[in-house]
From TrEMBL:
InterPro entries the record matches: Metalloenz_LuxS/M16 (IPR011249), MPP/UQCRC_Complex (IPR050361), Pept_M16_N (IPR011765), Peptidase_M16_C (IPR007863)
Family: Belongs to the peptidase M16 family.
Species: Henriciella pelagia
PANTHER family the UniProt entry points to: METALLOPROTEASE, MITOCHONDRIAL-PROCESSING PEPTIDASE SUBUNIT ALPHA
Record Pfam families: Peptidase_M16 (PF00675), Peptidase_M16_C (PF05193)
Signal sequence bounds: 1-21
Protein name: Peptidase M16
Gene3D superfamilies from the UniProt entry: Metalloenzyme, LuxS/M16 peptidase-like
Amino acid sequence: MRTFLAGGLAAAIVAAFPAHADTADGDATPSTFELSNGMEVVVIPDHRAPVVTHMVWYKVGAVDEDPGKSGIAHLFEHVMFKETDDIGPEEFTTIVQRNGGQLNAFTSWDYTAYYERVAKQHLEKMMELEAERMTDLVINDDPEGPFISERDVVKEERRQRIDNNPGVILQEQVMSALYQDHPYNITVIGKMEEVGALTPQDGLDFYQKWYTPSESILVVAGDVTPDEVRTLAERTYGQITKSDGEVPTRGWREVEPLPATQLIEYSDPKVRQPEWERWYLSTSYSQDQDFAYALDVALDVLGGGRTSRLYQALVEEQKIAVSASAGAWLSLHDTAPAVLSASPSDGVSLDELEAAYMAVVADVLANGFTDAEVERSRNSLAASAIYQRDSQVSLANTYGRTLAIGGTVSDVLNYPDDIRSVTAEDAIAALRRVLAADKNYIEAHLLPEEESQDDE
């Protein structure tokens, strides 16, 4: 399935399905503590190399934007790299790179995160830099200054990433229909006219409300001990005064059921390969963990790869499709979409593809899964999670993302055992719950311009 569109420089990191650490190696088990100003800290020892990944997660994303202010969370990510009282324009990136480091940032609906990966002796410097821009960011009315200049950059980014991409335009239309009265209905990058209207005062208000120690999580993975991180964190972040304002209320809310099934078509001369999709509302790891784990396994068996039911039937056997998949964005905080999708082979209409696809789904819903295929899928998901431990950045990302949406360290540690406990009965029950005949959905067709219904 197509990954969802997140804002920022590293959208692919947060678009992926979650990777979870295993408990087989106790050295990777994290320690947690909290600074006196409310900043949460997670330390994940990884002594394989003398490097560290340093991440700061803010409990704010596009879901928390005020009405009419869409895109400000993502815009603010850009502004954070510009200038502070003590760091000159563009100097933040230069300092990190001069110390041999890598850096990036990303914004999603549910959080914003910044990270640097450096040799361990530079960890304190990274903390100093992040603490500086948590407190002393420059936001002013200068047309060439940090806020207004980056606002123009984001507008151009929208033109390139969305307005020039037919598949993403269709996705944006689908999300708007699927989440009619929920913040997920607006792409993280925001609406062009609303981004263009954001003011430096909007930016300052957002900064003072959300960029505080109590709304942040520090995650350090690498060649460090908890005591070392605590000492450095208290010397840097610990010097930031605790906010005396009220704790902001997150924008999360219940997602209303889809009132009716709807067809959305989008055609464009740039489309070379048509695509058929169905979008259903499902659940999420935050909303109903057991249901989400069972659905994760079910969708993997149904359309999770080349061995899946759909791929084998439509691509390998019938040769009616060049791709066929099923998946869900279960790492969102609120109710997530489950997406069925396929692209037809040459000469195959979307109607023919849909009929063949849904025949496979109907057979699965009627007859269920075998124990063997469910076991294979759940073991694959667990193994993939464990393999992610080889990446220090993935480890830090997993813990940060989980805590930022209200999860716990135990959620991460227990994932392999939890996913392995899903039975064939659990999996098919979850799939039937999402794809039941009485469930409304959005059907989406991406078409070359000459195949649009307007031209028929």
